[in-house]
Design goal:
By secondary structure, this protein is mainly beta. The protein is built from three helices and twelve strands, in the order ββαβββαβαββββββ.
């Protein structure tokens, strides 16, 4: 059984495309293209289910068309519309690449100088040029490379040098 802590959200399926069973995938993270992965995990009726990919092709920087194994008709592809798409953390962690921002959701964030836990990353706000970690309590922390001291994927911990006074706002 796939657990929510073993995956992270990378996108959402849109409508069916064509009659062969392709479906559009709006994604925030193209990790499935950078890491050798045969499958994506879809949330179907609240259950995380692996779906093996036959092929995919990019339409833009944030949209691709995916053909899943055993999804061979437009009707079957339409049944997947609206499903959230996840990627296995273990596959993402196995790469030498720096972790993607979306993979950091669920990580604890700690102050480097004291080791004090500040909170848990609930979301990433990338709607502006200044990307922010959104903590579970709503606190916003700049996700600036200069502030991040280390990221420990195994411990699911981000250690940062938080600017003085930022947490007092």
């Amino acid at each position: 059984m796939i657990k929510t802590e073993d995956v992270y959200k990378i996108g959402r399926l849109g409508k069916a495309h064509g009659v062969r069973g392709e479906v559009s995938l709006q994604f925030d993270d193209d990790v499935f293209d950078r890491v050798d992965a045969d499958y994506l995990v879809l949330e179907v009726n609240g259950i995380l289910v692996p779906f093996f990919m036959e092929e995919y092709r990019f339409r833009s920087d944030t949209l691709c068309l995916v053909k899943f194994c055993n999804v061979d008709t437009q009707q079957r592809a339409s049944e997947l519309t609206g499903c959230d798409v996840y990627f296995p953390r273990a596959l993402a962690d196995a790469t030498d690449d720096a972790p993607s921002l979306s993979s950091l959701v669920g990580f604890d964030l700690a102050e480097a100088s004291t080791g004090t836990k500040i909170g848990t990353v609930a979301d990433i706000d990338d709607s502006t040029a200044n990307i922010l970690f959104v903590l579970e309590d709503g606190t916003l922390i700049p996700a600036n490379d200069e502030l991040i001291e280390s990221i420990d994927s195994k411990a699911r911990l981000i250690t940062m040098n938080i600017p003085t006074g930022l947490l007092d706002i």
